[in-house]
Amino acid sequence: MRAAVWTAPDTIEPRQLPVPEIPAGWALVRTEMTGLCGSDFSILHGTHPRAEAPLVMGHEITGIVEVAAETGPAAGTRVTVEPLIHCGECHPCSGGDTHVCRALKLYGIDVAGSLAEYVALPATALIPVSIAVPLQEAALAEPLAVAVHAVSRAGLTGGERVVIFGAGPIGILTALVARHQGAGSVLVSEPSEARRQVAEELGFATVAPGEDPVQAIVAATGGDGADIVFDSAAHPSVAAMLPRAVRVRGTIVLVGVYKKPVELDLQALTFAENTVVGVRVYTRAAVERAVELIESRELGLDRIPTQVFALEDTRQAFDQAMASGRVLKVFVSPAAAPAARTQESS
């Protein structure tokens, strides 16, 4: 089978590999789409703490069951994948919180993923998605699950004034989920003009170019600060603003992953009795809810700018994904035509 293999920092090579063997209880999935995300970027650059070359990356997986397991989705079923590998023995796993397993691993990071024509996966990791849903919307299930989990962790019940720092894929999806769940208002802060424009096209208010984000947030909330602040940017400059952007007894949700420790005014958070909530990937329930939202077509995911690259053009796909431009989500598809004939939607 054709595959794109990460072989060294900043190096991806097209290779022919054997079709994966299928252990008992596993299924063989024919890859339709693989989404690229920040974790993949760190693997590409050789900075991910766990990934080891050579590796077939890809944990945002959408495909068709080619060979079914004895239980689970039947052959021909379109599926998304919960790509988490947990130990089942640590304290979090014993309590049902397998997504924060102390030895958590992922397909496409710790073991082979879906940047190939086929990927073998446990049947228990597969979640059916209606074939009637446009493929590029179905392929958003994994990052959408992050957003669903983040909004759940925030405790949003309806009517809250919400601020999103960062209008990348996770920030925009979080904004969409928060609005769908009844947020009273959603304000997006994003320095990139292209991505700020996307947020506005999706109907969100944004912090104006050159305006101080904290001043804009305070003004938009009558001097109080936001009820809930989602940090999907994970940038030190944003961390410095969080205590001033949230109201007294408001909630800060850390959705993005900081690469190293940052300064945070804990005194301000203490005096304001703020709640700070971490988010790590997603629960199974969040993935299932993401699929429900995708199948409902209620979020308007078709308006998110995406681009599809051929498997042979995976390195170029990474370049586009890391450009942080108008295209919010980049996919790789074994069925796509190479080079100049990539498909774009907006």
Automatic annotation (TrEMBL):
DNA repair: present as a keyword of the record?
Answer: no
Report domain Enoyl reductase (ER) positions. 7-332
- Which keywords annotate this record? Metal-binding, Oxidoreductase, Zinc
Question: Which cofactors?
Answer: Zn(2+)
Q: Which InterPro entries match?
A: ADH-like_C, ADH-like_N, ER, GroES-like_sf, NAD(P)-bd_dom_sf, Zn_alcohol_dh
Q: Mind telling me which Pfam families this protein's record contains?
A: ADH_N (PF08240), ADH_zinc_N (PF00107)
Top-level taxon of the source organism: Bacteria
GO MF terms, alphabetically ordered: metal ion binding; oxidoreductase activity
Enumerate the PANTHER family for this protein: L-THREONINE 3-DEHYDROGENASE (PTHR43401)
Q: What is this protein called?
A: Enoyl reductase (ER) domain-containing protein
Which species is listed as the source? Answer: Pseudarthrobacter sulfonivorans
